[in-house]
Amino acid sequence: MTLLEYIASRSDKLAFQTIQHASMIAQCVLIAAAVGVVIGILVHRNERATAMATGTTSVIFTIPSIAMLGLLIAPLGLGVAPSVTAITLYALLPILRNTVVGLNGVDSTLVDAARGIGMSRLRVLLRVQLPLAWPVILTGLRIATQLAMGIGAIAAFVSGPGLGDQIFSGLARIGAANALNATLVGTLGIVLLALLFDAVFVLIGKLTTSRGIRIHA
Fold first, then answer.
1. Rounded Cα distance, 157 and 154, in Å
2. Which of 3, 90, 153, 173 could form a disulfide with 179 if both were Cys (CB 3.0 to 4.6 A apart)?
3. Residue 179 · residue 119 · CB < 8 Å
4. What tens digit of pLDDT does each residue of 101-149 get?
5. Do residues 153 and 164 lie in contact, with contact meaning Cβ atoms separated by under 8 Å?
6. What is the DSSP string of the chain?
7. What distance in Å separates the CA atoms of residue 158 and residue 77, rounded to the nearest whole number?
8. pLDDT tens string 152-179
9. What is the DSSP string of 155-200?
10. Taking Cα atoms as reference points, which of 60, 25, 34, 33 lies closest to residue 149?
């Protein structure tokens, strides 16, 4: 059976797994973004707090993904829960680090000027700092998404949803009929999803960043 015949014969299952994979990654990156950006806002003005936050996420980042998934089986079991937890934890570091870098990179004279005209600290953050830091934060989101896309494939190790099932199934039956097709379909599907997500982030960047900030970014 050729690769195209394999895809045609399992189109419904492959479409379902592709949607599962995309949905899982989108949800994990959204959770990581909410947590990472909030932590970045809270710690970016304190060097010690920043070092603790980035150090903690860096330690998590160094844990091999299969080991992390294996460790999560005991408290969370198999399936979606350990997969989402692991992917979210790995996605935290680039988002947190870029949030801190982006906020610290905002020209202090602009912040002082905003405070000088009577803006509160919250308004300065929302109206000045976050918009100027947004291109850097968005880059962190893009990196986190590409990272999560690959780790999402390994989540099949704990019966996680998505295209990783095709890869693990193919590798487990290597040499058997359609083993190579399954591995290729899973891999190519994840690559295509990664390119699609990246294109969405490029579009979001163009729609949410003013031309002046894009030029100076």
1. 6
2. 173
3. no
4. 999 999 889 888 988 888 888 999 999 999 999 999 999 999 999 999 9
5. yes
6. --HHHHHHHTHHHHHHHHHHHHHHHHHHHHHHHHHHHHHHHHHTT-HHHHHHHHHHHHHHHHS-HHHHHHHHHHHH-SSHHHHHHHHHHHHHHHHHHHHHHHHHTS-HHHHHHHHHTT--HHHHIIIIIHHHHHHHHHHHHHHHHHHHHHHHHHGGGGT-SSTHHHHHHHHHTTTSTTHHHHHHHHHHHHHHHHHHHHHHHHHHHHHHS-HHHHHH-
7. 8
8. 999 988 988 999 999 998 998 887 888 8
9. GGGGT-SSTHHHHHHHHHTTTSTTHHHHHHHHHHHHHHHHHHHHHH
10. 25
Q: How many domains does the chain have?
A: 1
- Are 150 and 187 in contact, with CB atoms under 8 Å apart? no
Task: Kindly give, in sequence order, each residue whose CB lies less than 8 Å from that of residue 150, ignoring residues fewer than 6 positions away.
Answer: 190, 194
φ and ψ at residue 2, rounded to 5 degrees: -80, 170
Structure tokens at 159: 């019966």
The whole-number pLDDT of residue 116 equals 87
Token representation of residue 28: 């994990």
CATH number at residue 156: 1.10.3720.10
The amino acid at residue 162 is G
Domain that holds residue 186: 3-213
pLDDT tens-digit map of 42-55: 999 899 999 999 99
**Residues in the chain, overall count:** 217
